[in-house]
Sequence to fold (468 residues):
Amino acid sequence: MTDYARHEHHDFLGAVGQALADVSLQSALVRLTDTLMAGNRRGYAALADSGPLRDHAKQIKEHTLAHLDKYLEQLEASVQRLGGYVHYAADAEEARRIIVGIAQQSGCKHAVKSKSMTSEEVHLNPALEAAGIEVTETDFGEFIIQLAGERPSHLVAPAVHHTRESIARVLSQHVGHPLPDDPKSLALTGRRLLRDKFHAADMGITGGNFAVAETGTIALVTNEGNGRLTTTWPRVHVALVGMEKVIPRLADLPVFLKLLARAATGQTLSIYTTLITGPRRAGELDGPEEFHLVLLDNGRSKVLGTPFRESLQCIRCGACLNACPVYRRIGGHAYGGVYSGPIGSILTPLYDSVAENPHLPHASSLCGACQAACPVKINIPHMLIGLRELQHHAKPNRWERLAYRLWREVLRRPFLYRLALRAARLTLRPLARKGWFSKLPGPGAGWTDVRDFPAPAAKSFREMWRKL
Ligand code: SF4
Fold:
């Protein structure tokens, strides 16, 4: 099993119950996901060619994944040509060892980090801290959840579960005196605290939204400018990037930049798009003396040759989370893994284990809203059904099999089917209230615990048809 950032023994159903009962979480989720979804629709509508552009993005991803070995080698050669170092991490443990090793060899003691889900995936912060290296998250939302000792609950809005009151509480505790819960002064406090950290930092750690094979460029998309400070101020820069983030050419980058911010927030572009092409060169005023690119596998290559390869096309925009009726009610923490929402329900079982995450493939109504919102049109419902199928084959349910076998036999014989319908109508209808059951016994209770079940109709469609 891959070393993957998931809570051991996570109680999914228990966490769902807690999330549903948390009134402030419910209102924060509605507020955020409504705003971001409206942005997503506005963003696509503002593009004259959003359909073809999304298809184009998908084709680039499909092509890259089909030739991933070639593009990774090209990326490695490009980064080395610029004077950077490339490391391959097969799993989370190796990624931690490589990055801690870079810090130790370069004598770094203070690291600043811009938002990176990949670093969450490999549990990087505890490993750095255990090696005596102070690490500070510099995205404001990530900074708050680091101070609160929590995990991100959304791909692009990691502190969505916090209100301004709770942020004021966390920051007040950190500075040691009460702060007003006014957003502007909270942001200024965060800015002052983080500036001090940037001044002291000797190592900057980032993820990478895209890695361009042709030029060795790492593209970072942020809204706060912290990514730019993280990559220019400290003398060592480490970019930890999932190996599926490679794209062939610099000319492919605008296709994704046009889509990413629009899908995520509805912005035309994120506020900062930073292109890092190697370490500082002679005559340049800023930039790191050393640049390291760590390419992470951690379960990705295992997915490459399976019907779930399409999940590697994800550009982590978060749009499927905002669109999903399940995420909108339960938030990110309930999923138990670092990636949440519909795409998390695929990535966590695939990178971690299908058997250890039995509920995730079922945490979806399969309504397709995720696919409609996705900038690369990933067929998430199809893959969720595929995971359910894997679960079924790994652990067949005897009773379910028997039920389907019986149902097959009945469907094959019209007279049996009619007889079964008549029997169901005669026995069940008198027990229903106004055509509905509010309580069913046995496994049926799983349905009626949360909604009513319709009683058989007084007349079947065939009977009505014949009469007509
Ligand atoms: S699956 Fe699509 S919508 Fe969801 S985060 Fe990835 S790119 Fe965005």
